[in-house]
Every structure is written in C-alpha cells, then in structure tokens.
Amino acid sequence: MTGRPRVKDRKIIKGMAYKIRTGISWRDLSPRYGPWKTVYTSFRRYALAGVFARALQQIQAQADAAGDIEWLLQIDSTVVRAHPHSAATGRKGGTTDRTNRTIAPSADPEEA
After folding, report:
1. pLDDT confidence of 35, banded at 50, 70, 90?
2. Is the sign of the CA dihedral 77, 83, 85, 87 positive or negative?
3. In whole angstroms, what is the distance from residue 87 CA to residue 74 CA?
4. Which of 39, 52, 29, 48 is CA-nearest to residue 7?
5. What is the domain partition of the chain in residue ranges?
6. pTM exceeds 0.70, yes or no
C-alpha cells in the first residue's frame, strides 16, 4: 500500500465537533484531528448524505421517548431578522397590493 495511512474516524468526528463547538475556520483546526481538509471533506460528505439530520432525529426520538425533551419554543426578534435588502415596498420602483394592517393587542388574561 502506498500513500498516507488513513486517519481514524474518531479523530475526524472529534475534529468536526470541535470546529462546530468553537466556530473556528477549517484551516485553524488543530493537526491532532488530522489534516483540516480531510476533516472538512468528511464533514461535507456527511452533511450532503444527511448523516447529521438522521443522527439528530434519532437522538431526539430517544430523548422524547424517555421524556427528556420539553417541546416549548420561543422565537425572539433578536434571532429572526429580515434580510438587509428586504423592503416593505416589494420590487424596486414598484408598488405592492398590500394594505397596512393594524394588529390589535390581545386582551389581558388577568382582566378576564
């Protein structure tokens, strides 16, 4: 056999987890996880093949069956933002058929 020996899968996966956890660039990945390009290539292949999505689904299903997940979600305006180029008028120079809608505040549940 010629060439370099194959990097162990455990090192590759640990490198992916480290990159995701820290947010560093791929090129700054420590050599202890193997060559950064190898880790990136494996990450891309796994992502395109849906490996991460399937793993997340299985982990969530197991945790939900055990009662470890509380499915309460909250979205904050500081998290969901409009694209900088979005505009209320629609297309450039055009108009939209939308009318301004006023949303009335809901009744205070303590007053009811």
Report:
1. very high
2. negative
3. 25
4. 39
5. 9-65
6. no
